[in-house]
Amino acid sequence: MTRSFYPPQRTLMGPGPSDVSPRVLEALARPTIGHLDPLFIELMDSIKTLLQYVFKTQNALTLPISAPGSAGMETCFVNLVEPGDTVVICQNGVFGGRMRENVVRAGGIAIMVEDEWGRAVSPEKLEEALRNNPETSIVAFVHAETSTGAQSDAKTLCAIAKQFDCLTIVDTVTSLGGSMLEIDNWQIDAAYSGTQKCLSCVPGISPITLSTAAIDKIKNRKTQVQSWFLDLELIMGYWIGGGKRAYHHTAPVNAMYALHESLVLVKEEGLENAWNRHYQNHLTLKAGLDAIGLDLIVPENERLAQLNAVKIPDGVNDLAVRQQLLADYSLEIGAGLGSLAGKVWRIGLMGHASRKENILLCLAALESTLKHQGATIGSGGVEAAMAHLRAR
């Protein structure tokens, strides 16, 4: 028999998606209107303005791509990279590797600058690579590496790129709304993100923003963009067409309602307040993890607040713990990726999930589950977190 699907109520504290605000879920259920309806066009303009706010930019080309963050990544690369272009890619985790795949498939030449997983990108290595490859026209890196919980110094990396007259493409999927990010002040030419992380919206939309210099590069291409759907010159006709919009695709109307509501929530809280909330909640979680005896793998000055990579104690079965957390507490945390698979858990404190009650649930559930698995750990994670909260 075919039945409707009713998912359980989970607490999502992995690398994404994150918990979605009830207000955002309610927005999804509002009546669908046409994607060229004058009222929907007004909503599109409001979304663009709010995205400029969270990106901290005046870029006219700031809009949501009707597809997940991976499509936002591809949008930036297929529009800015032409066959033969040299691109320096800084990789310190999984997602730098995906940047390389995009460059190669666009016919570009990828020069890799490798850093240890769990560490920030090295500005010195980037500068050396640019001196050794003067033909480079683009620098690409991940601001907040979701696979490791490391945050790189985007401002410094972009400043180095500009010294060598390079455009910059920056992955801000996990940083947007959760970490300090200033597109204009940091001279970021192209950035892409996702809605399912610190914006606490449903998955499936990718906010992007491109500078005037990036637009000039697109307008002066010698070759056609290889993707029709992600060709920004076509998309601009729909999203940045004034009162008259050129039909490009049927936008996911209800998902755009949800995105708008999630951005309204950020504006109501205040962007800087949202950054601070993520940081303070990270410190609270860390206080509890310290009491239990669990360590974070990223050095303190390079850590993400919203994505915490926790070292798995020796002898503990990674999968068994995550399965028990899901079965007993309906709590999801993430596994390690790549070289960190089986070595770390990724605990997300993103957006609506970055709340006191989630932190306390996670600490209590982890402590209980690890002891049930026979791990030798400390006690009092919840008490330590509460002590930190009271001292704030």
TrEMBL record:
Keywords from the named record: Aminotransferase, Pyridoxal phosphate, Transferase
Source organism: BD1-7 clade bacterium
Record flagged with keyword RNA-binding: no
Residue list for modification N6-(pyridoxal phosphate)lysine: 197
EC number: 2.6.1.112
Family assignment from sequence similarity: Belongs to the class-V pyridoxal-phosphate-dependent aminotransferase family.
The organism's place on the tree of life at top rank: Bacteria
Keyword Secreted attached: no
Cofactor(s) listed in the protein's UniProt record: pyridoxal 5'-phosphate
Protein's name according to its UniProt entry: (S)-ureidoglycine--glyoxylate transaminase
Binding site for substrate: 346
Domain Aminotransferase class V per the UniProt entry, residue ranges: 34-336
